[in-house]
Structures are given as structure tokens and as C-alpha cells.
Write a structure and sequence with these properties.
By secondary structure, the protein is of the alpha/beta class. Helix content is 23%, strand content 23%.
Length: 184
């Protein structure tokens, strides 16, 4: 099954997570199965020292799962600290979803929506010094004359309608037939 992957990119503190929260909630309201992948440039640890899951990982488990009736969490060690590609992550863990939204991954080749706030920067990342051809839209608190659609930063409904038109084509039952920004 193929699915669209769209990255939400911006400078730190611009509102990527806030916009993603709104997009996920709106897409879920419309009936889609939505995945989210967050890129972290730092070494993060979701385990808390002393907890059983942390102890099992510290003991050397290459993959450690915590499972309950409500959710499953996984800690998987990357071989030789090699970060998997976004394409590999989506193919491995997001096979049952209609769309995957990412936070970050600004250097990926996947379509991007840039979040911009005039108080954070006068220039865009994807239409500044470099022209990123994967930019498909901008969500901003100021108007821009661009070669891609520009949405108000708070227009989650409009952005979701755009994502439906561009990638989901006709609703949740048709999402397996999405367009060019897909991962098998």
C-alpha cells in the first residue's frame, strides 16, 4: 500500500508542532488514519531510568516493546548509531495509515509545508537562499507572493482540504491511490 508523506518544516520555535496537532486532529475528524514522525537532531531517550523498559534496553535488548490494551511503544537500537531514512521508517512502521505527517526532515525529498512567523524570520527556508523544489505550500502569519499556495498559519481546515486534493483523492476509502509523494 502506498501512502503520502508530507513534512512540516520551519525554524525552531515557529509553530511546527502546534500546526501538526491541528492537522492531525482535523484529518482524524475527516476519517483518516494519520501517522506522525518527529525528527530529533539530538540524542533523545523516551525511557526513564529505573523503569523496567529502561532496564531491559540497558541490558542490551536491540528492540524493546511495551504493550497495553491502549498502545504499543517501541525502543529500537539503531545499528552503529545509523539513523534510518524517513522512507525506511514509513515503510516499516506506517503501513496501515492513510497519510504520514512529519515534523522536521527539512533535507528530505518529500513534499514540504513550511511554517513561517514574521517574528521568527524575515525569510523562508525553502524560498530563501535556496529554492527547494519540494515545497508545496506555506502556512504563515503574513501574506507571500509565491509559486505555491499560502495559507494562514491557523487555517488547519484549509491545509487539510489541500492535502486531500493533492494526496488523498476523494476520502479515506480512496487514499491508497495517492499521488507522487508516496512510500510503498
Amino acid at each position: 500500500m502506498k501512502k503520502p508523506v508530507v513534512s512540516i518544516v520551519a525554524k525552531s520555535g515557529t509553530g511546527k508542532t502546534t500546526l501538526l496537532e491541528k492537522l492531525i486532529a482535523e484529518l482524524k475528524r475527516r476519517g483518516y488514519r494519520v501517522g506522525a514522525v518527529k525528527h530529533d537532531a539530538h540524542e533523545f531517550d523516551i525511557d526513564r531510568p529505573g523503569k523496567d523498559s529502561w532496564r531491559l534496553t540497558q541490558a542490551g535488548a536491540d528492540t524493546m516493546l511495551v504493550s497495553s490494551a491502549a498502545k504499543v511503544a517501541m525502543v529500537r537500537q539503531n545499528p552503529a548509531c545509523r539513523e534510518p531514512s524517513l522512507q525506511d521508517l514509513v515503510a516499516s512502521y506506517c503501513h496501515d495509515l492513510d497519510i504520514v505527517l512529519t515534523e522536521g526532515f527539512k533535507k528530505s525529498g518529500f513534499p514540504k509545508i513550511e511554517v513561517h512567523r514574521k517574528e521568527r524570520s524575515a525569510a523562508l527556508l525553502c524560498r530563501g537562499e535556496e529554492h527547494d523544489p519540494t515545497l508545496i505550500a506555506v502556512a504563515s502569519d503574513q501574506p507571500w507572493a509565491l509559486d505555491v499556495p499560502v495559507f494562514d498559519i491557523d487555517d488547519a481546515g484549509g491545509i487539510c482540504s489541500f492535502l486531500e486534493r493533492e494526496f488523498l483523492r476523494g476520502g479515506p476509502e480512496c487514499s491508497a491511490d495517492a499521488g507522487a509523494a508516496e512510500v510503498a
